[in-house]
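dumping these here so i dont lose them again. two proteins, back to back, each one seq then structure tokens. dont judge the mess
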Amino acid sequence: KILPKTYIDFSKMPIFKIIAEMRNVKLPGVTLFGGVTADGRVGTVIKADVTADGLWINQKQLKNFKTNMEYSDGVVAFIPEVGGVTQITGSVDFSQPSKFFMNDLSVFENGKRLLYINGSKKGDDLDITAKGEGISIGDLLNTVGVKITADGDTNFNVKIAGKTEEPTVICDVNSTGIKLGELLFDTASVSFQLSQNTIKIKHLKIASANFCVIEGKGSIPIYATSNIKRKLVNKSIDVSLKVVNGDMAVLPTLSKLIKKAKGNFSVDINVRGTVNRPTVSGVFTAEADKIRFNDIFEKLTDVKCQVNFSERKIKLKNLDAMIDKQPISLVGE
């Protein structure tokens, strides 16, 4: 929506001021909401100062953002704003039919480069690289539309290549000092490749010194529409997840039955089968010096437990413990 104070003055060198308000403007993967103003002049080169105050990109808000732009012969160049907190440099080239190029497109904040993009689209062929350094994980999630409170710094490298309809995406992500809601993690890293509607996780590790270490790898078919899902119903799933060095002190936050726990646990989970018929199996093991309960009986000591599970079956292989210095042993399924 163009607001009433917009104007173009042809009395001397043509000058213009465009004041626009965007309400849920939807682009691929992005929704824009808020105000943008372009104030400039037209000559052999079109120059404009672009400002945004309160512009939302998905869940990320830009405050008091300003950049300078120049357009000539199909090339848009971004010129840094002196003294600006957020700066954009580089250019986007639309000068050739059916092609565009992003040349050293960078975003700086307080003098530090956060994001770098370089690449091209030639017809149906993509070749784009992107690199992020020290980006707030909360800002990153909000920019891609994930509604969650999060803190921590994230670095990533992304390579996108191939045909527009089904490109191959290779991505490495590393984060530190992560807080997702009430969960705290020291580090997280993932390396994956997305190709032909299948994500292949080469490496996944999330670590918290006070909770556990989660590791994983495997391949998962993904789909955005029901039509794609129908094509993938017989596509194989092969995922392994492992939780090691689990601290049972976290159990009171997961169950009101448990007052206090001291010990360790581990979990192995395997997901196999197809999109149409996945199967889940795994093993849970635990060793606890002491588990105190809010109800039932006061506490268990010297606990050793193993539970096997697969599809619809859960088997208690063993549960050995002491209650008031008396041993107990349970099995069943």
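---- next one ----
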Amino acid sequence: TCDLSPAINAGQGRYNLTDAVIPALGDCVVTMAVSAASTTTPGTVNFSTSNFTDGADTFHDANASLIINPLANPTAVAAFTPGTILSNEESVLTVTLSNPNPVPLVGISIENHLPAGLAIDASQSSNTCDASPSINASSGSYDITDATLQANQDCIITLAITDIDINDVGTQRFSTGNFTDGANVFSNATADLTINAAPDPSVTAYFSPSVMLATETTTLTVRISNPQTTPLNNVNIVNDLPAGLTLDESQSSATCDARPQFNAPSGIYNVTNATIPASSTCTITIAVTGISNADLGLKVISTSGCVANGVSYPDATASLGIFDQFP
């Protein structure tokens, strides 16, 4: 407020006044906005005016101290949601980077490499770090380079985890890596994902009735139960009746959302590429015909080739007793 234009050198921190006029019994106020670079060494900075003079007399200078505190380190926190899943389910990993400082932090890098065997669904993953990630979805890596953490804000990395199967059962530990601004290395974050084995689908089979005369008919029922929380896809099963028995295609059916493959004279009723929804059952009903005295005795059927999601499961058996007369 000294009624003159100052000589300023902002880079050198100088703001000089020459030939100023201070009114009688008045003040002249010099206000300088001071900023510290991120590379400034923390500590106490002492300031002193100099050459305070009217050309004839030299007056006492003023002194002031400025305490510069170090920037607080950014923090990283990681968590899986949910943290406990079955081996056929999915989870989401969230990594939160927090900047507790009143100024932005620049040049931030962090590596996010999933435990071996897990992969990333890149289309469902994202970050709010104002940076383009380097992604290798199949190997489970999602790295951030040269990001900016805004003042007093968080940057959130969200990773959709896929390819979880029975081989990943157990506790999988994730840890961030190389969390740095290029000059300083910060503490990494860890998170555990507990993977439990999903219950196996089961196959059961039975004849109704299971004991009969050669002049009667029966029905074979095969059930594939899916106790899991996700659908079973690409379900295949072979149902081959004992020799001599045939099936009535018009009276046979399946609830597996698949087109069955018939060979009525040979007694073959196969299901291919079926889908069984979560917590559901596929029921295959086969009307058995062509029974005669030539078929007397105990007949045993065993399903075969029960495969779902590329995994083979135990087969089922059912017995049928055929008599010419009951005792």
